[in-house]
Write a structure and sequence with these properties.
By secondary structure, the protein is of the alpha/beta class. The protein has five helices and 23 strands. InterPro entries: 5peptide_repeat.
């Protein structure tokens, strides 16, 4: 069936009845095998093209100049067991997954914008061209931040997504849209990044985590859930830009032999030294811009405490090529001795 046919089949009276029964079963954690009329495709329940979530409420927060629109969807699944379902071309945008278990599911070209995912465990799932833009990707409930195990993210849109500290184990992120994606303190091990890696954040511990409930109960300290970056492979990645922050240790990571980046050997030793050189020897605008980059980016408070780091050599155009090359050369010259 074409994508249009997959979607339109749910618009018939029979299709609507099946869909209502499916949603009822999911919310009650009842077996989907008991839903009359629900078919199988490649040993998975066939929900391809189904609209499972619709906009229920929209509200705007803030002023006219600085406003944010929050959208709530109709799909709300809590403590649900979601197993062996093909969600390809389905729409689950603005939905809620809270403390759910999602196993052996296929999300090919699934629309999942602005999802709220909390403390849910994903096992052996494939996300192919899934659109998760602006979603919460496993925020924590007290000390439970969920997990992604044995999952593949292939050309997945993770733009501006926010994690807290889920376990990400034995997963691959290949050719994903990662602009502004904040992996935060995701506890990564045995993870591969391939293709373009452009502008994500990866931290040594979470700073977006909900640290208490009603300021009193279930208090947690994100530093108790460190991201140890165990066996992380960037060797097949095209690193365009990436921000490592908050005392993260990159010792057990593999990086490409070449690329538009500099591998810094010792952040704590290098940048105080470079700052002194710039203060004494550089002049005018170059001096101002170099000190700004060192103080606010390369050796900002969130970089202090790190040893290894990766610095992109692709900068904004307004700084000028000559300045960028001069600063990059300074970094390279003094980096080799550390």
């Amino acid at each position: 069936m074409t994508k249009r046919e997959l979607v339109n089949r749910w618009n018939s009276p029979d299709g609507q009845n099946v869909l209502k029964a499916v949603l009822r079963a999911l919310k009650r954690s009842e077996p989907l095998g008991e839903v009359n009329g629900l078919e199988m495709i490649d040993n998975r329940f066939d929900l391809r093209g189904a609209t499972l979530s619709t906009v229920k409420e929209q509200r705007t927060i803030g002023t006219k100049e600085h406003s944010l629109t929050q959208t709530t969807g109709s799909l709300k699944l809590k403590n649900a067991d979601i197993e062996s379902i093909d969600f390809s071309h389905a729409d689950i945008s603005y939905g809620l997954f809270q403390e759910c278990t999602v196993t052996d599911c296929l999300f090919n070209e699934t629309i999942a914008k602005e999802m709220d995912i909390y403390a849910s465990d994903f096992e052996s799932c494939v996300f192919g061209k899934t659109n998760f833009a602006y979603s919460f990707m496993n925020k924590n409930v007290a000390g439970n931040a969920g997990s992604f195990r044995n999952c593949k993210f292939l050309k997945t849109n993770l733009k501006e997504t926010i994690f807290s500290f889920p376990i990400i184990d034995n997963c691959i992120f290949e050719d994903c849209e990662l602009e502004g994606a904040d992996f935060d303190g995701s506890r990564m091990r045995n993870v591969t990044f391939a293709g373009d890696v452009d502008s994500p954040f990866i931290r040594g511990y979470s700073w977006t985590a909900e640290t208490s409930l009603f300021w009193i109960f279930n208090k947690i300290n994100p530093r108790d859930y460190p991201n140890l970056m165990e066996n992380i492979d960037f060797s097949r990645a095209n690193i365009k830009d990436i921000l490592f922050l908050d005392e993260i240790d990159l010792t057990n990571c593999k990086f490409p032999a070449t690329g538009d980046f500099i591998m810094v050997n010792n952040v704590t030793k290098l940048f105080p030294k470079l700052r002194d050189i710039v203060v004494k020897e550089w002049q005018d605008e170059d001096k101002k811009y170099a000190l700004s980059l060192i103080d606010n980016l390369y050796y900002s408070p969130k970089k202090q405490g790190m040893t290894l780091d990766v610095i992109s050599t692709i900068h904004s155009e307004h700084l000028g090529k000559e300045f960028q090359e001069r600063l990059d050369q300074l970094i390279r010259e003094h980096n080799v001795d550390l």
